[in-house]
Automatic annotation (TrEMBL), chain A:
Claim: Transmembrane is one of the keywords in the record: yes
Organism field: Coffea arabica (Arabian coffee)
Residues spanning the membrane: 44-61, 268-290, 818-838, 844-861, 894-913, 925-941, 948-968, 988-1010
Domain P-type ATPase A: 100-162
SUPFAM superfamilies reported for this sequence: Calcium ATPase, transduction domain A (SSF81653), Calcium ATPase, transmembrane domain M (SSF81665), HAD-like (SSF56784), Metal cation-transporting ATPase, ATP-binding domain N (SSF81660)
Protein name: Phospholipid-transporting ATPase
InterPro entries linked: ATPase_P-typ_cyto_dom_N, ATPase_P-typ_P_site, ATPase_P-typ_TM_dom_sf, ATPase_P-typ_transduc_dom_A_sf, ATPase_P-type_domA, HAD-like_sf, HAD_sf, P-type_ATPase_IV
Compartment list: Endomembrane system; Membrane
Keywords: ATP-binding, Magnesium, Membrane, Metal-binding, Nucleotide-binding, Translocase, Transmembrane, Transmembrane helix
Automatic annotation (TrEMBL), chain B:
Lineage: Eukaryota, Viridiplantae, Streptophyta, Embryophyta, Tracheophyta
Pfam families with a match to the protein in the record: CDC50
Transmembrane segments: 34-57, 296-318
Cellular component GO terms held in the UniProt record: endoplasmic reticulum; Golgi apparatus; plasma membrane
Principal location listed in the UniProt entry: membrane
Protein name: ALA-interacting subunit
Family membership noted in the UniProt record: Belongs to the CDC50/LEM3 family.
Compartment(s) where it occurs, according to its Swiss-Prot or TrEMBL record: Membrane
Organism: Coffea arabica
Length: 1105, 338
């Protein structure tokens, strides 16, 4: 399907495409109520409560006032509806602001001020500097004579650098006064959400140019929500408008995530529901039998001999209503409240503020904190996540000479400085490639310094380094680059840019030396992409050795090469390139093919090595989290050696005797299968040994493994605690997350760049690092943190506490509801199974909503172990991971406790308030106060740390219970007038209360003490140890220090490059080089990765845009 | 001025940083009690030591109560007649004379209760069948909707309506000791709150027990509801199927071994549903009537606490267990990674 846009045609387009009205709203004024209610009632819990509330309207069966259910229900609904409405209103306001923004557009041949929402497809829109682009435009003119303009795309992809946009060649040279009269036709694809791709054609109608079709790419477009910068004005044709823009298509609400705890609570709720149905059924039948046999004899009840047709249903339904409190209506509200608070604690945490940039941690998703405590797998990006992503040019190897060593960078190396001074041709060429083979935009600042705006940190590092060596990239004037070398200006004209793609792994530029008129091809890229293209005579061994050495140091390497082009050769190629560029089908593939025709017989100039330092605290963090039983997978777009090196230096895998790396590789399905089977075999053998085994796989083999050997790979994934996946594409990252999720693991994905977004959204928990690569990942993530090391605190402290607290809160909510419900059931057994409610409506409602909710809410401050202890003993996280604190058996414990407490309260109350005291209202209050007393002690016993707030909530709540009931008892109109005063005057009331507390709590305390002392859990031991004070020496604790120390010493010295290899050598039967070599110049490109539009992590560093 | 500006600037610069407070940092000072043997054993011993005396006190209080219970429903009916027919008939003579022996000296006031067993005053249909609004205010006499099936007779509202009032207990007792009448004080047997508020002083019984089915007792239409204390007592529904309600008080001491003659008008039909009727004379103490449950409960629980405490001490002595020993942590016993 294609879209034909007639430029500047006022009639045709109106009907076909939508106007530029943006709408992010979910509701309108009219459909808000029905739609919102429909959404809320699609949840089972809400349906249940609505059914109960409706049944209560039938006064024949309702045990209590319907208001006791309707009140809370309406409140809950009103709160969430209000929140939705408020959010939607804000969206409406921001839409409105955007829609009513004034823009310059051409209408009927005249430039006019119109509102942004009135722009139609085909209109010509004018923008001034710093204007926001109102819809997707194809550029047709700018103030720049070269037709360039700069845009900031931060709102679109989170990248903060400036990007160059250029007008299509067909529009080049159109006079400013004529621009608004341009007519033509743009053929473009139907709207999609790919912000990096736009393959279209433009044909201008006479009188402008002949019928030549001109290709248009993403570089000729201005996308909605970008900002025009450094350009006086620009104008373009609207091609996509309103919600059909690229940005509009990308928008969309991600699926709400459900935590494991939520799923468990739902399951338990289901179980309770079934239990409730059983109880109702049994009591209903019993009630009907009792009615027919016994109640008919009770003359004072006056049962009619013949009842209505529904008579048999009445008693079961009454019990259904009586038992409806088994599922606490307050649990959802309480959980939402505490979850909001967990998220706030994360936002507030001073210890998770990145001091450098003063970025606090932020929880964007407030609902999934418990999952943090249950993480089993962490999938992490490398660049920018484990490392700083702050590239520094460290070393280089130019024609066999190594510059830079342990003492200093290459920049400070005397030899290199001398070589530059003596104008050694190789070095000069090397520097030239460093300076101009890129897409960097230099911006002159007022004070004379030059600011480089680069998309890739690697390029920026290279340009800076070149400038440090007196090869200063001064100015970019359209296609002409000014280089200032030792005070003389050299000009180059960029003829073509052969862009970087993650598949090609290299980029080149064709430049013309303006003085000599010679043509050069300058290339840079990954070693395996450049070295095979070397001219036949050249020895590449030194370079591959250099690459090997550097990558073992954990440095990122780039090979630089060049070639002088013949005029004829270039002209011929240029035509093909243009043709490929205007292809509508498979453009990427065709361009890659054409590029390859030029990139051969390169003269390799050297290797540049760039350091990307590890972030602070990464090894310690990984060490700690691995001890906590979390498995790490590293997914990176980087090379295998660099990845392994980083993995070693950050404790991903232990060094040799303890660790072992298994390599899976192969080019064909068979090779991969064999390699996979071999690794699997080794895994099975070693899985019983206490050994650190990790497998390494690259993107290619991964693709094959996932496609053809899914089962074997799955088994491998289950066996292996650590994995390094290198050269993987964003979609593969997401696939791996999916794979682990399908094995029922809780996954956390952490990353910092646009290429991690998919994996972040896919994982149970997505964590984004608000780093240098923009905020794209951080925006898509559930949590954003400033540095990788905060992950430790996020998981061990916040995640763990959240899990513990929710586990208690949810089970306690069920406990207290069951308690009161059991008492109702017992009472019905002595009231002729007729469904009489012992409690009055007010008490029932207050019990659920107030008396029992407040103390437990303060439980969000509870800490079983101090943060320090948890950090010292991360193994304790196992209790959360395995769900030890909330599962059917712990729930059974709470269920049993509520049954026991119900029996205690009920038996004691009916015996001590027997005979002359057995007045209904009195007994009801005695039983209720018994429950409240028990509640207070249960919460107190289960609280691990008492702050002043907990004391206030627990004991204050008990006091509040009496105060409230005294107040109610003082009101003559209330049913329980004077009851509470009467009770409080009776010594027997207080005696009964104490008896209930001791009889109810004694066994619980004794059991808890017994378990605590003789069957202690690890948590208990640590609590005890913590109490004893002093250093808690854990044997496992001594180790990280020693290993950390070892790490400092061990970065492989360059003199013994092989000394480290034993770590992975034993099983590395195939040299990694063997694979690389196969990327020969003639080898066809395999575009298995082409589905992924987002470039891989390496791509980010070299991408051209 | 300038310094103020400066500070506001610096605060706005730092505004992205969370504010420090012990609450937001979850660092509120907290005490973390742990269950040490000392604490737990002390608690149990303390509870035991406190509970047993209280239990003994309660038990002795309960034992001091002198109580006479006499079940009369079986004996006050001619054995040769059909019980229900006898009790429902207007013509039968339902007077029944019982004599009770005072076992111990009963100090005044001696409370007179009637006890009904197997009577479900807490049955849902029964409990709900009353109109509190009607009882309170004469203007509300038409508010009889909850009272079905005893709401109206010939479409005139019944006051007091509903099953509870309709089934009013109507046995009467007359007491004499050695031929001397014992006066029964029936004043102030109902709760003050009922007399003063729940039952209106201007509400008079109307159309009561006029229907085809006669339930229990009848009411004097000239006396306002708030003074019909028997009704007030009856309408305080009991929560248990076995209950006692106050009938009156004897304001003089009864000596031990005195014979009390009770003349019972056995009107109330408990035979239809197999209920029992008992007459109870009882004194009270601070704990109320005779009820040894609390005392026994306290002694049992206190004893159990002491037992648990002893067990824990013994366990502690036999198998002492060092607290917080990191060697109990499994990951310290096994090499890591396993």
């Amino acid at each position: 399907m294609k879209r034909c846009v007639y430029i500047n045609d006022d009639d045709l387009s109106h009907d076909i495409y939508c106007d530029n009205r943006i709408s992010n709203r979910k509701y309108t004024v009219w459909n808000f109520l029905p739609k919102n209610l429909w959404e809320q009632f699609s949840r089972f819990m809400n349906q249940y409560f609505l059914l109960i509330a409706c049944l209560q309207l039938w006064s024949l069966i309702t045990p209590v006032n319907p208001a006791s259910t309707w009140g809370p229900l309406i409140l809950i609904f009103a709160v969430s509806a209000t929140k939705e409405a408020w959010d939607d209103y804000n969206r409406y306001l921001s839409d409105k602001k955007a829609n009513e923004k004034e823009v310059w557009a051409v209408r009927h041949g005249v430039k006019k001020h119109i509102q942004a929402q009135d722009i139609h497809v085909g209109n010509i829109v004018w923008l001034r500097e710093n204007d926001e682009v109102p819809c997707d435009l194809v550029l047709i003119g700018t103030s720049d004579p070269q037709g360039l303009c700069y845009v900031e795309t931060a709102a679109l992809d989170g990248e903060t650098d400036l990007k160059t946009r250029v007008i299509p060649s067909a529009c080049m040279g159109i006079d400013f006064d004529l621009l608004h009269k341009v007519k033509g036709l743009i053929e473009c694809p139907e709207p999609d959400k790919d912000i990096r791709r736009f393959d279209a054609n433009l044909r201008l109608f006479p009188p402008f140019l002949d019928n030549d079709v001109c290709p248009i790419t993403i570089k000729n477009t201005l996308l909605q929500s970008c900002y025009l910068r450094n350009t006086e004005w620009a104008c373009g044709v609207a091609v996509y408008t309103g919600n059909e823009t690229k940005l509009g298509m990308t928008r969309g609400v991600p699926e709400p995530k459900l935590t494991a705890v939520d799923a468990m609570i739902d399951k338990l709720t289901g179980a309770i529901f079934v239990f409730q149905l059983v109880v109702v059924m049994v009591l209903g039948v019993a009630g009907n039998i009792w009615k027919d046999t016994e109640a008919r004899k009770l003359w004072y009840v006056e049962y009619p001999t013949k009842g209505p047709w529904y008579e048999l249903l009445v008693i079961p339904l009454r019990f259904e209503l009586l038992c409806s409190i088994m599922i606490p209506i307050s649990i959802k509200v309480s959980l939402d409240l505490v979850k909001g608070l967990y998220a706030k604690f994360i936002d507030w945490d001073n210890k998770m503020v990145d001091q450098e940039t003063s970025t606090p941690a932020h929880a964007a998703n407030t609902a999934i904190s418990e999952d943090l405590g249950q993480v089993e797998y962490i999938l992490t990006d490398k660049t920018g996540t484990l490392t700083e992503n702050q590239m520094i040019f460290k070393r280089c190897c130019i024609s066999g000479t190594f510059y830079g060593n342990e003492i200093g960078d290459a920049l400070k190396d005397e030899d290199l400085v001398n070589a530059v001074a003596t104008r050694s041709p190789d070095v000069i060429h090397f520097l030239t490639v460093m300076a101009i083979c890129n897409t960097v935009v230099p911006i002159q600042r007022q004070n004379g310094t030059i600011l480089y705006k680069a998309q890739s940190q690697d390029e920026e590092a290279l340009v800076h380094a070149a400038a440090g060596l007196h090869m200063v990239f001064v100015k970019k004037n359209g296609n002409v680059l000014d280089i200032n070398f030792n005070a003389s200006v050299i000009q180059y004209e960029v003829l073509d840019t052969l862009e970087f793609t993650s598949d090609r792994k290299r980029m080149s530029v064709v430049v013309k030396d303006c003085q000599s008129g010679k043509l050069f091809l300058l290339s840079k890229g990954a070693d395996e992409a450049i070295l095979p293209c070397a001219s036949t005579g050249q020895q590449t061994r030194t370079f591959s050795e250099a690459v090997e050495q550097y990558s073992q140091l954990g440095l990122r390497t780039l090979c630089l090469a060049w070639r002088e082009l013949e005029e004829d050769e270039y002209q011929e190629w240029s035509l093909m390139f243009k043709e490929a560029n205007s292809a509508l089908v498979d453009r990427d593939w065709r361009i890659a093919e054409v590029c390859q025709r030029l990139e051969h017989h390169l003269q390799i100039l050297g290797v540049a090595a760039i350091e990307d330092r590890l972030q602070d605290g990464v090894p310690e963090t990984i060490e700690t989290l691995r001890k906590a039983g979390i498995n790490f997978w590293m997914l990176t777009g980087d090379k295998q050696n660099t990845a392994i090196q980083i993995a070693l230096s950050c404790n991903f895998v232990s060094p040799e005797p303890k660790g072992q790396l298994l390599l899976i590789n192969g080019k064909t399905g068979d090779e991969v299968r064999q390699s996979l089977e071999r690794v699997l075999l080794t895994m099975r053998i070693t899985s019983s040994e206490p050994k650190d085994v990790a497998f390494v796989i690259d993107g290619w083999a991964l693709e094959i493994a996932l496609k053809h050997h899914h089962k074997a790979f799955m088994e491998l994934a289950l066996l292996s605690k650590t994995a390094i996946c290198c050269r993987v594409t964003p979609s593969q990252k997401a696939q791996l997350v999916e794979l682990l999720k399908s094995c029922e693991y809780r996954t956390l994905a952490i990353g910092d760049g646009g290429n991690d977004v998919r994996m972040i959204q896919q994982a149970h928990i997505g964590v984004g690092i608000s780093g240098r690569e923009g905020l794209q990942a951080a925006r898509a993530a559930d949590y954003s943190i400033g540095k990788f090391r905060f992950l430790k605190r996020l998981i061990l402290v916040h995640g763990r506490y959240s899990y513990n607290r929710t586990a208690f809160l949810s089970q306690y909510s069920f406990y207290k509801s069951l308690l009161i419900c059991f008492i109702q059931i017992f009472f019905s057994l002595i009231s002729g199974v007729s469904g009489t409610s012992l409690f009055n409506s007010v008490s029932l409602m207050a019990y659920n909503v107030f008396y029992t909710s407040v103390p437990v809410l303060v439980n969000v401050l509870d800490k079983d172990l101090s943060e320090r202890t948890v950090m010292q003993h991360p193994q304790i996280l196992f209790y959360c991971q395995a769900g030890r604190l909330l599962n059917p058996s712990t729930f059974a414990g709470w269920f049993g406790r509520s049954l026991f407490h119900a029996i205690v309260v009920f038996v004691i109350c009916i015996h001590s308030y027997a005979f002359e005291k057995s007045e209904m209202e009195e007994l009801s209050m005695v039983v209720l106060s018994g429950c409240i007393w028990l509640q207070a002690f249960v919460v107190a016993l289960e609280t691990n740390s008492f702050t002043i707030l907990q004391h206030l909530a627990i004991w204050g709540n008990l006091v509040a219970f009496y105060v409230i009931n005294w107040i109610v008892s003082a009101l003559p109109s209330s049913g329980m007038y004077t009851i509470m005063f009467r009770l409080c005057r009776q010594p027997s009331y207080w005696i009964t209360m104490f008896l209930i507390v001791v009889a109810g709590m004694g066994p619980v305390l004794a059991l808890k003490y017994f378990r605590y002392t003789y069957r202690p859990s690890k948590i208990n031991i640590l609590r005890q140890a913590e109490r004893l004070g002093g250093p808690i020496l854990s044997l496992g604790n001594i180790e990280p220090q020693s290993r950390a120390f070892e790490k400092e010493v061990s970065p492989l010295s360059i003199s013994q490059p092989k000394s480290r290899s034993p770590v992975y050598e034993p099983l590395l039967s195939d040299s990694p080089n063997a694979i690389r070599r196969s990327f020969g110049p003639g080898a066809p490109f395999d575009f298995f990765q082409s589905q992924s539009r987002l470039s891989s992590s390496y791509a980010r560093n070299c991408k051209d845009n | 001025m300038s310094s103020g500006e400066g500070s506001s600037q610096s605060s706005s610069k730092k505004s992205r940083q969370p504010k420090y407070s012990r609450f937001t940092q979850q660092e509120l000072p907290a005490c973390k009690p742990i269950l040490t043997p000392g604490l737990v054993v002390t608690t149990f011993i303390l509870v035991g030591v406190i509970f047993i005396p209280i239990g003994l006190l309660s038990l002795s209080a309960s034992e001091r109560v002198v109580e006479i219970v006499d079940r009369y429903d079986e004996d006050c009916i001619p054995s040769d007649q059909e019980k229900t027919a006898f009790i429902q008939s207007d013509k039968t003579n339902k007077t029944c004379v019982r004599s009770l022996t005072v076992p111990k000296k009963m100090q005044h006031p001696v409370y007179i209760y009637y006890q009904l067993d197997n009577f479900y005053q807490n049955h849902r249909r029964y409990v709900k069948s009353r109109s509190d609004k009607q009882l309170r205010n004469p203007e509300n006499e038409d508010l009889t909707s909850p009272c079905e099936p005893e709401a109206r007779v010939d479409n005139k509202p019944i006051v007091p309506c509903g099953l509870v009032a309709w089934s009013l207990f109507n046995d009467t007792y007359g007491f004499s000791v050695g031929g001397m009448n014992l006066s029964v004080n029936k004043k102030d047997i109902a709760w003050d709150s009922d007399k003063n508020y729940k039952f209106g002083s201007k509400v008079y019984p109307k159309n009561f027990q006029q229907g085809s089915l006669i339930g229990g007792g009848k009411l004097d239409e000239k006396i306002p509801l708030s003074e019909q204390e028997d009704l007030l007592v009856w309408m305080r529904t009991a929560a248990l199927p076995s209950f006692r309600k106050l009938y009156g008080r004897i304001e003089q001491d009864l000596e031990a071994n005195e014979m009390i003659t009770v003349v019972i008008q056995n009107n109330y039909n408990a035979y239809a549903f197999g209920g029992k009727k008992k007459l109870v004379l009882s004194t009270t103490t601070w704990i109320g009537g005779k009820n040894s449950f609390l005392g026994l409960g306290y002694i049992t629980i206190g004893g159990l606490c002491l037992f648990i405490a002893t067990t824990f001490i013994v366990m502690y002595l036999i198998k002492p267990r060092p607290y917080g020993d990191p060697s109990y942590l499994s990951w310290n016993r096994n090499p890591p990674g396993n």
